[in-house]
Amino acid sequence: MTMRTVNKILILCMFSIFFLASCEKDENIAPPPSIPVIEAANISPSTFTFGDSVTVTAKVSDAVKLLATLDVQAIINGRTVDIQKIMLEGNSADVNQKIFVPLIDNVTDNTEVKFQLKLTNNKNGSSVKELTGFTGNRPYFNQLYLVTGKGEVHTLTPQASSRDSYEAVDIVENRSFAYKIAQKITDGNQIDYSGLVWGETDGKIQLVNETGGDIFAFKSGVDIITSVVFDNYRFTASFSGGSYLTPNFMLDDFTETFIDGEEFYTMETALTKNQEYHIYGDLASNNIIYNPDFFERINANKVKFLGETGNYTLYYNKTRQHVVLLPETSPAYPDYIVITGMGIGYPSKIAKEHAGWGFGNVRNFLLTRKISADVYQVTMFILPSPEQYNWVGFKPYENTGWGGEKTYDAFTYTGLDIFEGTAGSNIFPKVGIDEGIYRLTIDWNANTVHVESVVLP
């Protein structure tokens, strides 16, 4: 074999080695990713209101890989807003789904909107389709609602100067409080999340759902906030305020104490008949019942005193959420009569039970208000017993020393027929009556008791 022949053989061998290596390298190269296809897509209607829904329809497929998601985004004034992630299954899908287009801040009416659809498969292959030719209109409302963290509701109405500005006036709130803005509220004054709701997310006012945070109001240099303006274009709120109005009831002026194991706040004060008193902070809660025999609730932040001018102690029961009172001197006939017993108590929306017989403290008895000569009024909660009376029943007395009592048989009863008893016995609720709030008008001279049902304010 000649040297030339050997060289040819070596060259051929080397070529074969390179060829085989090249083939092996090609076999290890990953195939290109599968690209999912948006075959057709549409969003309708083409003109819509921000805060409403539109319908997205699309036909999508991937011949090789399973589909994963169809992400919908809106491009509004150059800002990309994530709208919805639609989950997919299989190698193809016909999408027909409503999607919510949110209202965002600083967007004018009749704004051009683009939608972007991004289709992905389960191996991160993706394709994008842009849809154009849409117009978004701003929503305008006849009213909105400011709902505080404590459940107070203030109506916001449009300002004449701007359809996007909504104002609540003549409110009374602390200079710092939490709130949301709602398009709708329920019959129970709760936020209805089927409408638009503005709360706080990432430190900014935005549309939120049930998990969204409260917005926090603060106005320095004032005692109370008296008006709010919500700018629905910029998503901002501004506040005005002033000083506390007098005369007033504020918890800061009360002293904490405990009576029969329950938390009370008390304040000695002079009260004037038919005087209106401003109430602030916790004492303005709608849950608090001011003794309806002595106070008329004028509005959320004002009560009117109905009793006689004089010195009194106010008792705010934090457990039962009511405000009752006692005169400076021990109450006695003819200015008052008093009632004590079991299964009765002052009206409350929160807790409905009375502490029991006695005159040792304000929890033991009910104070009546004299409405004319020898005629007294008392509003009480009655918790009837279905079968036994050893813990349900009461008597009226002329003083807190167990003096001048009258029993069931001393009176003639008119109005609601809910009481019974025997000669010389307590006044008992009849078996089977509904528990509830009842008002008794007692004529001490004529020996009559008129009974009517009362609905709490």
Could you describe the 3D structure shown?
This protein has 457 residues and is mainly β. The chain folds into three domains: 37-137, Immunoglobulin-like (Sandwich), CATH 2.60.40.770; 144-242, Immunoglobulin-like; 248-453, no CATH class. It has one helix and 38 strands. The protein has one helix spanning 3-28; strands at 37-44, 47-49, 53-61, 67-76, 79-87, 92-100, 111-121, 126-137, 144-148, 153-159, 162-168, 173-174, 176-182, 197-201, 204-207, 215-218, 224-231, 236-242, 248-249, 255-259, 262-271, 276-279, 289-290, 295-299, 302-305, 310-317, 322-327, 338-342, 344-345, 365-367, 369-372, 375-382, 393-397, 412-415, 419-420, 428-429, 436-443, 448-453. Strands 9, 10, 11, 12, 13, 14, 15, 16, 17 and 18 form a ten-stranded antiparallel beta sheet that branches. Strands 29, 31, 32, 34, 37 and 38 form a six-stranded mixed beta sheet that branches. The protein has a five-stranded mixed beta sheet with strand order 2-8-7-4-5, with no helix packed on it. Strand 10 (153-159) and strand 11 form a beta hairpin. It is elongated. The chain starts with a helix and ends with a strand.
